[in-house]
Design a protein that fits this description.
Layout: E1 6-10, H1 14-27, E2 31-35, H2 38-44, E3 52-55, E4 58-59, E5 62-63, H3 64-73, E6 82-86, H4 94-99, E7 104-107, H5 115-123
Parallel strand pairs: 1-2, 1-3, 3-6, 6-7
Antiparallel strand pairs: 4-5
Length: 125
């Protein structure tokens, strides 16, 4: 059996972050590193080997666009696939997600039991 994939999860809502972390680790079997903000996520990047990043598109008052631009500009993180998990998932067309360098968007609220399968599908795992 191969080792578990590692996911950086960024969501400012503690209760949502906790549910996501449990779903992804317990049901999905992945190693989940949780962060409450983009800044916290950036601080964790040098210490982790990540297979994906799942993030809310708005954490607090911060927009995800700058964070994604920083990731894609850094040779060490530019190839990590990014998924958005957001109340605004339906706002994004496939082209808009591609322009943002994002693999896909998952709508909140989400079905906790189905979430790992949706993540796997979007990431091609």
């Amino acid at each position: 059996m191969c080792s578990a994939r590692s996911i950086l999860l960024i969501d400012y809502e503690a209760s949502v972050r906790e549910v996501l972390q449990v779903c992804l680790s317990e049901i999905g079997g992945w190693n989940v590193i949780a962060a409450a903000s983009f800044e916290e996520g950036l601080a964790l990047l040098p210490t982790q080997k990540l297979d994906a990043i799942i993030m809310d598109n708005f954490t607090g008052k911060r927009d995800s666009t700058r964070f994604i631009q920083k990731l894609k500009a850094n040779p060490l993180t530019q190839s990590i696939p990014i998924l958005l998990i957001t109340h605004k998932a339906s706002w994004y067309s496939r082209q808009h997600l591609q322009d943002m360098s994002v693999v896909g968007a998952i709508a909140k609220p989400f079905d906790p039991v189905c979430l790992p399968a949706k993540v796997s599908q979007l990431l091609g795992w």
